[in-house]
Design goal:
With 345 residues, the chain is of the alpha/beta class. The chain is 23% helix and 25% strand. Strand 1 and strand 2 form a beta hairpin. The longest helix is centred in the middle third of the chain and has 16 residues.
């Protein structure tokens, strides 16, 4: 195990300038464990390629999982996390929350692609063990991420997971989050305050369990977890990071042990949507009646046909519904979009 107080970057990343550069250089490889002990008493461990553990000097009152790059071409959240880690390594502030920092799909990051073989964000909650995913690049990465999350989580300490993304298409609501479905639970005001402070003013409430990374931590560990969409996909180096100052500041506060404060009634500052229908690619005769360039949250009137196959179709109900994440090019059996309706209460 490498240990040095004088040069924590070299201890963690060797000749690479930072976490991102090391992850890209070693994508697809297994990295040996390394650690850096900062003068503040913080210990940072590199557990694997693209996986870091940040341990504060004092017992932590919360556990954080911050993940980015589960889709390799969604670069802005990766760059934001890389900058936050740089602030810690430079001694600008001292983290007080135990944190698992993850760059999800390094090989796809190198290729600038959403994924290589399979959509990594559909392979959690054990789906990676099933054919055809078992043994694939993304299947093995999902298994690895579940393993390290399991090693990280300590029972009895509140757990929060923010899985950060950017969208492949434009959106009428630039920043929004998805709250995984757990029967009977409600979003705490503290988490709504985090979203509002992060400039995320729209929240989708899922209507059934899923196999996303955020769903995995919610189902298995009871985490307050969110998939957070922060804007539009751009290549590395082409992101206007000023547009991500809200999430950067909020994560810095949580890592630093602070509570997020928002002026006024937080429930009046965020728009809630309920997922009412999940569109599934049912096979070769499946047809999605949504243009390829349609923006997320485009609204359709009552009676509009959204998709159909030889046996059935889906029409918008008595109230208008909006579409989110439409994608006709997903494999058979996978999600081709969500239909959502604004909550009135």
């Amino acid at each position: 195990m490498e240990q040095t107080k004088e040069n924590p970057r070299h201890a963690l990343f060797g000749d690479h300038r930072d976490f991102l550069a090391h992850t890209l250089a070693h994508a697809g490889e297994s990295s040996a464990h390394a650690a850096a002990h900062l003068e503040s008493g913080v210990i940072i461990e590199r557990l694997e390629t693209g996986i870091l553990l940040i341990r504060p000097p004092l017992p932590s009152q919360r556990q954080l999982i911050i993940s980015a790059g589960v889709h390799g071409n969604e670069t802005a959240p990766i760059e934001v996390c890389n900058l936050l880690l740089g602030e810690i390594l430079d001694g600008n502030w001292v983290p007080e929350s135990a944190t698992l920092l993850i760059f999800g799909n390094p090989v796809a990051m190198v290729q600038g692609e959403r994924f290589v073989d399979h959509n990594l964000n559909r392979l959690f909650t054990g789906v990676h063990e099933k054919p055809p995913y078992r043994g694939s690049l993304e299947g093995e990465r999902a298994r690895q991420l579940e393993y390290w999350v399991d090693r990280f989580v300590e029972a009895g300490t509140p757990l929060f997971h923010y899985d950060l993304h950017t969208a492949i298409r434009p959106s009428k609501r630039e920043k929004f989050a998805v709250y995984p479905f757990i029967p009977g639970r409600h979003v705490p005001d503290q988490q709504l305050a985090f979203l509002v402070a992060s400039d995320v003013k729209t929240l989708l409430l899922q209507h059934k369990t899923a196999s996303t990374f955020a769903s995995h931590s919610a189902i298995r560990y009871g985490a307050e977890s969110f998939t957070v969409e922060l804007g539009k996909v751009q290549p590395f180096g082409q992101n206007d990071l000023a547009r991500f100052s809200g999430i950067r500041n909020s994560l810095r506060q949580l890592l630093g042990g602070a509570e997020i404060a928002v002026t006024g009634d937080v429930r009046e500052q965020i728009d809630l949507f309920q997922v009412v229908h999940e569109i599934i690619n049912t096979g070769e005769d499946f047809h999605l009646h949504v243009p390829d360039d349609v923006a997320n949250f485009t609204e359709y009137p009552s009676g509009a046909i959204i998709w159909q196959d030889r046996k059935t179709d889906y029409k918008v109900g008595p109230e208008p519904e909006a579409i989110v994440f439409p994608n006709r090019n997903v494999p058979i059996g996978q999600r081709a979009g969500l239909m959502v309706r604004r909550c009135t209460a």
